[in-house]
Specification:
Layout: E1 5-11, H1 18-24, E2 35-41, H2 48-55, E3 60-63, H3 69-79, E4 84-87, E5 93-94, H4 98-108, E6 114-116, E7 118-122, E8 133-134, H5 148-156, E9 166-169, H6 170-175, H7 187-197, E10 202-204, E11 210-214, H8 230-245, H9 254-271, H10 276-289, H11 299-308, H12 310-321
Parallel strand pairs: 1-2, 1-4, 2-3, 6-10, 7-11
Antiparallel strand pairs: 4-9, 5-11, 6-9, 7-8
Helix pairs in contact: 5-7, 5-9, 8-9, 8-10, 9-10, 11-12
Length: about 325
């Protein structure tokens, strides 16, 4: 039976967690679908690669010594035999039968380039239990495939769909040239927006299945920008690049500009306590894109913003309440 789906999993020092991920992908949990699992070990020093090779002989194990997640994912994409591709982190879980209806949707609708399903976040340093599920903001389920601009505005505003929940057509990913290996952060954001610029048609499918994402899995290899300041600038430069391309693809509209500016202003509120100089660069670009932004909060706070402007309103709130 030909391989229909390829699950691509970059990993780095996850010997204690990857077993839960791979066990969730056991054939017994996904009957009736021919799929392959590709693990790319990015230079682990804790024996992750050897553990996978020994205990999961059916898994395709590749080596990507220290070259980063984007390169690992592209290596997996180049190796994949399936018509469809799912990127998964090496500490997340796939619920039983997650693939079946999504693959059927793609098979029945050749105009679709991708689809996505429901997901939950959970906190645990070991196996998953329903009690571990935590509340976090979720990306909306958008069922129509003709809502590219709605997806774009979500992404420009900083509302991202976890890549773990998406199943792509491989040929469309190849058309988009996979992940940008020059980026050390926001590679998934960049890929999704480039997919939109390439004519992405994606639809949500709501069934009883879910992907389960560990809450700490914001990619410890890439690291929080708070611990690697240059990544703040990389995030900003990516937004400048995207802003410069909106007109080329017919998305140069006020609602897109407003979404970018709101995102930049939100980042400024965070970064100004960490790196004031970089924060000013975010604020400068936010003013260039669209200004003033609309402050969210109670009525007095919004009124203060209209009178003093959003920057002064935030600073005054911080002085009075010691929080943004």
């Amino acid at each position: 039976m030909a391989v229909i789906l390829s699950v691509i999993i970059p990993t780095y020092n996850r010997i204690d967690l990857i077993k839960f991920t791979l066990d969730s992908l056991a054939v017994i949990h996904h009957p009736g679908l021919a799929f392959e699992v590709i693990v790319i070990d990015d230079g682990s020093t804790d024996g992750t690669g050897a553990f996978v090779g020994k205990n999961y002989p059916g898994v395709i194990l590749l080596k990507n010594p220290g070259k980063g997640a984007a390169t690992a994912r592209n290596m997996g994409l180049a190796t994949a035999k399936g018509s469809y591709v799912m990127y998964l982190d090496s500490d997340d879980l796939v619920g039983e039968n997650y693939f079946k209806q999504k693959v059927a949707l793609l098979e029945q609708n050749p105009e679709l380039n991708a689809c996505y399903g429901a997901y939950e976040f959970f906190e645990s340093d070991s196996e998953f239990q329903p009690a571990h599920i935590i509340f976090k903001h979720k990306y909306p389920l958008i069922f129509s495939a003709d809502k590219a601009k709605e997806h774009l505005i979500n992404y420009l505003a900083g509302n991202f769909l976890p890549p773990n929940a998406i199943i792509w057509r491989k040929d469309f990913l190849m058309k988009c040239q996979g992940h940008d290996e020059r980026l050390s952060i926001n590679q998934d954001v960049d890929l999704f927006i480039r997919a939109i610029f390439n004519g992405l048609k994606i639809a949500a499918l709501q069934d009883e299945t879910k992907v389960y994402i560990r809450a700490h899995a914001l990619d410890v290899r890439v690291g929080d920008p708070k611990n690697a300041g240059h990544k703040w600038m990389e995030i900003l430069e990516l937004r400048k690049k995207i802003f410069g391309e909106l007109g080329k693809y017919g998305y140069d509209s006020v609602d897109c500009y407003r979404a970018i500016s709101n995102y930049l202003f939100g980042q400024w509120k965070v970064i100004r306590h960490i790196d004031p100089a970089v924060a000013e660069e975010y604020l400068k670009f936010a003013r260039q894109v669209y200004w003033p932004v609309e402050i969210k909060g109670n009525a007095p706070y919004r009124m203060l913003s209209k009178i003093l402007g959003p920057v002064q309103a935030v600073k005054m709130k911080y002085l009075l309440l010691k929080r943004d």
